[in-house]
């Protein structure tokens, strides 16, 4: 008999970064590293579970920006070249380390790893990761959902329902274009909820979303089932709260599993350790050090000298942490179950790139957790969609404004390091709404200009830029992107105010920002229906 169900949710997102104006661009490596360390290994793991006939069901949110980059031909070509350079570096590393058996063993490990990724990307998935995820959904193993178009932190735009509607509508369009079916739910970026956003979801036929645990616990009335069952908004859209305790077993920077000293250190990389003359062609011009993927050290202790990474010791610790995690779920189910009128549902969401990228051993941990739950007599793995089919009637509640970010609200995306950007973003939103009113019916060149204005506003709203500015104030790429999108929008606005169109500028800018090719600027219309009770 099942005493508890688990909803594993992976949220996959990266900001749209694509720079055809440069032969190589440092920030494109965010995407390349994510494919190599998370998405190909994750697909390999899921297909291995399928091959072994392990019953599993999980939810994956794929952001429109990430999906667009998956499909981009320029980025595919650059990723393949990046991976081949990495393998070339691996050959040099095997030669350099041949006098040190332990280092050489690790160099070989990475060579095998990168060569396998290259083979799978080209030969197994034919450079089409979208199809690989779509096939898993069509076969019933995963449920794919979406998030806001450019992952905007929506509570900061609640005074502009046109902008929130545009974020959701473009997300739906992108998802359907790539996955050929409408998603049933939406990942609110950063679990950022404000009262009323569920109306936008209802308009777009979205039946559920995810929220931080305190969003439900601080709601309009006591949550009868705590965070162990969804609650229903007044219009019937459901909210699934994160189980904070179980999530923190992994998420906690101090006590979470990935912080264990035996695991591989993400930050210690030969791109920062070795002589520039040796490493130069594998980092970035002009002599900008960057990650290469060759990381030879374990996390070790804070006050200890770094130890070489031991893959076998890490595998052993993974198994221990899997056992601990499943045991923790068991004890939670035993504790909570008798207090409810149904088996508890533990929603455990993670950023997908935690697995493999930030936590090198994480994909293996996730696979063993899924296998462990599948073989467990009293635990089950089901998606929110499956849960609602089983339990359609749930408590109605008004959720509190909340996020899963630091301090539980908007402090990460609105602080002293980034607050200046919002007067510009809000003004741009007001102006695109104004342009829609002024130019209700346009064709040809002027419509292209207006469509691109809408695209720039959406890119400007991305939550990634204020997040980076708050957490990495010395990284100027985020500020440059903000200023560039403000400038680009103002170019369009000023041209239209003068009733002119700079065709050369438009063509050049469209080639750089290829996202949302089918966008219609009227997505920002103030006359759209934004409320459904």
């Amino acid at each position: 008999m099942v005493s508890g169900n688990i909803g594993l949710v992976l949220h996959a997102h990266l900001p749209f970064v694509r720079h055809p104006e440069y032969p190589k661009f440092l920030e494109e490596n965010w995407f390349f590293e994510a494919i190599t360390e998370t998405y190909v290994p994750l697909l390999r793991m899921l297909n291995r579970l399928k091959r072994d006939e392990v019953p599993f069901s999980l939810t994956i949110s794929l952001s429109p920006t990430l999906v667009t980059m998956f499909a981009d031909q320029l980025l595919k070509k650059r990723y393949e070249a990046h991976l081949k350079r990495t393998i070339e570096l691996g050959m040099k590393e095997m030669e350099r380390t041949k006098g040190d058996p332990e280092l050489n063993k690790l160099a070989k490990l990475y060579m095998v790893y990168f060569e396998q990724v290259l083979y799978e990307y080209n030969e197994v998935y034919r450079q089409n990761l979208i199809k690989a995820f779509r096939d898993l959904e069509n076969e019933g193993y995963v449920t794919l959902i979406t998030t806001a178009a450019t992952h905007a932190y929506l509570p900061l735009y609640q005074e502009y329902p046109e902008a929130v509607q545009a974020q959701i509508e473009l997300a739906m369009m992108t998802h359907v274009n790539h996955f050929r079916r409408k998603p049933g739910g939406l990942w609110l970026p950063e679990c950022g909820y404000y009262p009323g956003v569920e109306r936008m979801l209802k308009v777009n036929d979205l039946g559920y979303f995810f929220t931080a645990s305190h969003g439900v616990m601080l709601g309009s009335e006591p949550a009868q089932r705590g965070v162990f069952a969804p609650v229903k908004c007044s219009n019937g859209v459901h909210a699934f709260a994160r189980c904070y305790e179980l999530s923190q077993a992994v998420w906690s920077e101090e006590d979470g599993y990935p912080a264990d000293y035996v695991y591989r250190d993400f930050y210690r990389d030969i791109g920062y350790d070795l002589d520039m003359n040796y490493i130069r062609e594998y980092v970035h011009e002009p002599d900008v050090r960057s990650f290469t993927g060759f990381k030879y050290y374990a996390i070790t202790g804070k006050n200890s000298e770094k130890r070489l990474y031991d893959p076998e010791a890490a595998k052993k610790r993974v198994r221990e942490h899997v056992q601990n995690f499943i045991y923790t779920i068991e004890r939670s189910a035993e504790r909570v179950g008798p207090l409810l009128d149904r088996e508890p549902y533990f929603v455990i969401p993670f950023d997908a790139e935690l697995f493999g990228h930030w936590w090198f051993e994480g994909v293996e941990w996730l696979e063993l957790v899924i296998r462990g739950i599948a073989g467990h007599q009293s635990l089950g793995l089901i998606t929110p969609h499956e849960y609602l089919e089983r339990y359609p009637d749930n408590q109605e509640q008004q959720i509190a404004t909340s996020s899963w970010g630091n301090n539980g609200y908007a402090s990460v995306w609105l602080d002293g390091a980034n607050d200046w950007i919002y007067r510009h973003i809000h003004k741009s939103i007001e102006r695109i709404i104004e342009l829609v009113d002024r130019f209700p019916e346009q064709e040809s060149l002027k419509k292209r200009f207006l469509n691109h204005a809408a695209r720039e506003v959406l890119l400007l709203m991305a939550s990634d830029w204020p997040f980076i500015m708050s957490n990495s104030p010395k990284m100027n790429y985020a500020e440059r992107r903000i200023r560039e999108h403000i400038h680009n929008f103002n170019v369009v606005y000023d041209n239209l105010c003068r009733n002119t169109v700079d065709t050369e500028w438009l063509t050049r800018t469209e080639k750089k920002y290829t996202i949302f090719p089918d966008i219609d600027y009227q997505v920002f219309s103030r006359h759209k229906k934004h409320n459904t009770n």
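The chain has two domains: 4-255+310-407, 415-524. Strands lie at 4-12, 58-62, 142-147, 185-187, 208-211, 231-232, 238-241, 345-351, 379-381.
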